[in-house]
Design goal:
CATH superfamily of the largest domain: Type I PLP-dependent aspartate aminotransferase-like (Major domain)
Structural class: alpha/beta
CATH class of the largest domain: Alpha Beta
Oligomer: single chain
Largest sheet: 7 strands, mixed
Strand order of the largest sheet: 4-12-11-10-9-5-6
Helix content: 25-40%
Distance between the termini: 26 Å
Radius of gyration: 24 Å
């Protein structure tokens, strides 16, 4: 939904938007939207089956849990699924606290340098110490997490590391990490293994349970519907029951107790109810499970192959553009990638490039650091040093904060070869006419790039208040 939305450009032309911001949030899958619209006719609260609407809500909400477990290859005998607020962030914070509390003698977490802040800051907050796992390097370009380094860290700190947290797919470069292999190394040294699946769930197939090699089983995985074609849906936690049942649930309230007395309460001993206090986002969960079901029907292996082919095409074409730098290992034969490419054009600020792509070409991208500051800093520091001569070491940080960032183009299952070609044509034009485009913009007090003569108020495109007035008039 929204692929056909049109905007008027600085050139005066009105064109369809070309959406390359799927790593931030995917567009809404219409079939999932329609499922939720039909469900609203029966909507009621869960935890009852004594009237028709409550019975339907309860049964379908239970189906949503089951469907997600099946999609992720998580054996329901050993794993549970429950929903949380604020996307992936809430689930990772919750698991960090659980892992800390069930193994208090192990006070260290290990994360990769490529993590999104949602899979970095919770561990810094809830664990006594965090160590970072380096990446593989190939001709100076960082690739996936280095498993040899991971094992070396676990061996050196054996008995101290509680868990390892790792992204399945980088939200900056689209690089895919070997998560099942990493899980095996973690379990060899008695460390738990948590996966940030935010960029993984909608793009590549996954088996949390590996029957032929249980050491490769993933202890817990978190993802969110807003990156899986259902904006606004809750985050999802899939975790081993044995881990969660060792302590009282992190959140308490209605729905997760069997009985409450004046001075005590009795927690339910079954999942997922004990982990879902309060009234859940029932429509969100059902919409997400519907989208997951449709993805499964299409086939995740098929989708992965289609998207990897599209990314490979984009990489090859972008490599021919003068002064364009692609970040992360750019050869998919060396390092498997999906869905995302981050880049800069030499001599142009990332914010300016993003503004030009929008204003002149109707290409929607994201810029800055994508909530992955350490990873971005590592990749762009050489570029910053090339920009200035005779820089003093103490000035590097101030220059980094002024110039830090990239442009990110990210795809989804609705992205076409024509979309990729439009992006490449736009970047070639920008690269060849830098001075022309620079002269058309100025920066405001927030250092945002503003076109000198082209400005459209968003209310001319959409306004909630205007919509309400139209509906009630």
């Amino acid at each position: 939904m929204g692929l056909d939305t049109e905007y008027t450009l600085a050139t005066g032309a009105t064109t369809r938007r070309i959406y390359f911001d799927s790593a931030a949030t995917t567009l809404m899958m219409k079939a999932a939207h329609d499922v939720v619209e039909r469900f609203y006719d029966h909507y009621a609260n869960t935890h009852s089956i004594l009237h028709f609407g409550a019975r339907i809500s309860t049964k379908e909400y239970a189906w949503a849990h089951e469907r997600i477990l099946s999609f992720l290859g998580a054996d329901p005998e050993y794993y549970t699924c429950f929903f949380t607020g604020s996307g992936t962030t809430a689930g990772i914070n919750r698991l960090a606290r659980v892992f800390r509390d069930i193994r208090p003698e192990k006070e260290v977490a290990a994360v990769s340098i490529m993590e999104h802040h949602s899979n970095d800051l919770p561990h810094r907050k809830h664990m006594k110490e965090v160590v970072h796992i380096p990446l593989k390097q190939h001709n100076g370009s960082p690739g996936c997490v280095c498993l040899d380094s991971l094992e070396a860290i676990l061996k050196e700190r054996e008995g101290q590391i509680n868990y390892v947290a790792m992204t399945g797919v980088s939200n900056v470069t689209g690089i895919i990490n070997p998560i099942n292999e990493a899980a095996e190394i973690c379990h060899k040294y008695d460390a738990l293994f948590l996966v940030d699946g935010a960029q993984l769930a909608a793009h590549i197939p996954l088996g949390m349970t590996v029957p032929e090699n249980p050491l490769q089983n993933i202890d817990a995985l978190v993802f969110s519907g807003h990156k899986t074609y259902v904006p606004g849906s809750p985050g999802v936690v899939v975790a081993r029951k044995e881990l969660l049942s060792q302590i009282e649930p992190e959140e308490v309230g209605g729905g997760m107790v069997d009985d409450v007395f004046e001075d005590t309460y009795q927690i339910k001993d079954y999942f997922p109810d004990r982990e879902e206090a309060g009234t859940p986002n029932i429509p969100g969960a059902i919409g997400l499970a519907a989208a997951i079901d449709i993805l499964d029907r299409i086939g995740m292996t098929f989708l992965m192959q289609e998207e990897e082919a599209l990314i490979a095409t984009a990489l090859e074409k972008m490599k021919t553009i003068p002064d364009l730098t692609i970040y992360g290992e750019p050869d998919p034969d060396v390092c498997q990638r999906t869905a995302t490419i981050s880049f800069n054009i030499k001599g142009m600020d990332h914010g300016l490039v993003a503004a030009i792509l929008n204003d002149y070409f109707n290409v929607s991208v994201r810029n800055e650091c994508f909530c992955a500051h350490p990873y971005v800093k590592e990749m762009i520091m050489d570029d910053l040093l090339d920009m200035v001569d005779d820089i003093e070491m103490e000035d590097i940080e101030s220059i980094y904060h002024l110039k830090r960032g990239m442009v990110r183009a990210s795809i989804a299952m609705y992205t076409t070869e024509e979309d990729v070609e439009a992006l490449v044509v736009a970047l070639k034009d920008i690269s060849s006419r830098k001075d022309y485009y620079k002269s058309r913009y100025h920066t405001d007090e927030r250092n945002e790039y503003i076109h000198n003569s082209f400005q459209i108020e968003h209310t001319q495109q959409f306004s909630i208040e205007n919509c309400i007035e139209q509906l009630i008039s």
